[in-house]
Design brief:
With 187 residues, the protein is an alpha/beta fold. The radius of gyration is 15 Å and the shape is globular.
Length: 187
Amino acid sequence: MNLYRGIKRAVESYQNITIELVDRENELYDLLFIPGVGNFGESIRRLRQSKLIGFVRKHYEDGRKIVGVCLGMQLLFSRSEEAPEAEGLSLIEGEIIRLKSRRVPHMGWNEVAFKDTYPSGYYYFVHSFRALCNEVHVLATTEYDGEIFPSAVRKDNVLGFQFHPEKSSKIGKRLIQKVVECALYPQ
C-alpha cells in the first residue's frame, strides 16, 4: 500500500490528475500503473484471484499506457526464476532472473542511463531479480556490482521501471511527469 501512495502522490502532483487504487475489474484508464513489492508468484496469484489479469490485458490490447514499477515491471514478463511455476503477464517477451551479485538485494541509489528523452540520473532501487530480454525492449540500463542489466523496458504501450521513481526525489518526479505527459498527450 505504501508503494501505491507514493505513486499516487507523484502522479497527482502533476496537473490535477487523480489516481485510484483498482482492486477489481473496472473501466479502462488512460494510464495504468502496476506497482509491486514482494514475490513474483504471490503477486501473479493475487492478480488472478482478483481477476485483474484480463483487466491489464484489455488495457494492453486497447493501446492504453501500462507502467510496471519494481516487481510490477517484472510481472510484465512471461516468467521468473523466483517462482518458476507462475506465468507472468507476458506483455514483454523475456524472463526475470536473479542478479549475479553476492550482494543482494541491490538497494540504494544507482545510475540509470536512458536511451531516449527520459531523464538519466540516479534513482532508488530495491530488488534481487532483473529482466533478461531482447535488446530492442531495453529503454535504460544500470550497472550493479559489475553486472549491467535493463533498469527500464518498453514495448508498444508498456513501460517498466526496475527502480522506484516515486522514491527517487526530484528526478523520479520528473520521470513520472514525462510518463503522464506521454500517456495523456501523445504526439
